[in-house]
């Protein structure tokens, strides 16, 4: 079955520390992959996407993600977290015409 | 460029009542999506339109949910009658075409009592 798994429901990091959010997918081929961020009361904003080519993808707000086919993973990283990064992060893949989301990871940032 | 607009932002109803949500996509976007996001979960696609035609409604509970996109622009999503488990945020999104980046509206938070 096609699915996206985000193993960490909550993550807390200190401001200035590095961040990695995990995402694993299950799909028969290489899907189109996305990371979205959702702040309280807001819609989802696209951070970055991977369609093909370079497996390290740069996004907005200093985020990057690396596609690893052998691990079926697309982990999101940021070298130095800011307090404004506190939000919920969703990994998603596009298979056919349907965008399938993971359950999300809530990021909390300690001062 | 104006974003995706949705209204109302919040709605509280009692079970068995009906409710409707409205979405105005980004101008020129042919594809429109409605998602349901239950608390603690990722969004789930309910229905997808290409212009005024339905592309995918396989996950829409058709016994109580309906949606339309007359004239291929605005869209409404209706629930009749509502159940407690329909409490969720309903997100509308649009894209230029299928497979293009989706832009999301702020959502409508529905509480069914």
Strand content range of chain A: over 45%
Could you state the order of secondary-structure elements of chain A as H and E?
A: EEEEEEEEEEEE
Please state roughly what percent of the residues of chain B sit in beta strands, choosing from under 5%, 5-15%, 15-25%, 25-35%, 35-45% or over 45%: over 45%
Shape of chain A: globular
- What are the secondary-structure elements of chain B, in order, as H or E? EEEEEEEEEEE
Descriptive report:
The complex is a heterodimer of chains A (111) and B (113). Chain A has 111 residues and is mostly beta strands. Chain A has one domain (3-110): Immunoglobulins (Immunoglobulin-like), CATH 2.60.40.10. Chain A is built from no helices and twelve strands. Chain A has strands at residues 3-5, 10-14, 19-21, 24-26, 32-38, 44-50, 56-58, 64-68, 73-78, 87-95, 98-101, 105-110. In chain A, strands 2, 5, 6, 10, 11 and 12 form a six-stranded mixed sheet that branches. A four-stranded antiparallel sheet of chain A has the order 3-9-8-7, with no helix packed on it. In chain A, strand 7 and strand 8 form a beta hairpin. The N and C termini of chain A lie far apart (41 Å). In chain A, 32% of the residues are buried. The model of chain B has no long low-confidence stretch (mean pLDDT 94). In chain B, the strands form two sheets. In chain B, strands 2, 4, 5, 6, 9, 10 and 11 form a seven-stranded mixed sheet that branches. Chain B has a single domain (5-97), classed as Immunoglobulin-like (Sandwich). The radius of gyration of chain B is 13 Å and the shape is globular. In chain B, strand 4 (31-37) and strand 5 form a beta hairpin. Chain B contains no helices and eleven strands. The interface between A and B is medium-sized, with 21 and 23 residues.
């Amino acid at each position: 079955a096609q699915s996206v798994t985000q193993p960490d429901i909550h993550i807390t990091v200190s401001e200035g520390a590095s961040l990695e959010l995990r995402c694993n997918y299950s799909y028969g081929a290489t899907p189109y992959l996305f990371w979205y961020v959702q702040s309280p009361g807001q819609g989802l904003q696209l951070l970055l996407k991977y369609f093909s080519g370079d497996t390290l993808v740069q996004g907005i707000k200093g985020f990057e993600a690396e596609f690893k086919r052998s691990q079926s993973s697309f982990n999101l990283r940021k070298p130095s977290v800011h307090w404004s990064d506190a939000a919920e992060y969703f990994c998603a893949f596009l298979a056919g015409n349907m965008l399938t989301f993971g359950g999300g990871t809530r990021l909390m940032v300690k001062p | 460029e104006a974003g995706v607009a949705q209204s109302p932002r919040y709605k509280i109803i009692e079970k068995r009542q009906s409710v409707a949500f409205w979405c105005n996509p980004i101008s020129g976007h042919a594809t429109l999506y409605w998602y349901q996001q239950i608390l603690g979960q990722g969004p789930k696609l309910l229905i997808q339109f290409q212009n005024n035609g339905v592309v995918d409604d396989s996950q829409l509970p058709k016994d109580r949910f309906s949606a339309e996109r007359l004239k291929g622009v605005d869209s409404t999503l209706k629930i009749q009658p509502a159940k407690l488990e329909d409490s969720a945020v309903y997100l509308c999104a649009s894209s230029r075409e299928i497979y293009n980046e989706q832009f999301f509206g702020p959502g409508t938070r529905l509480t069914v009592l």
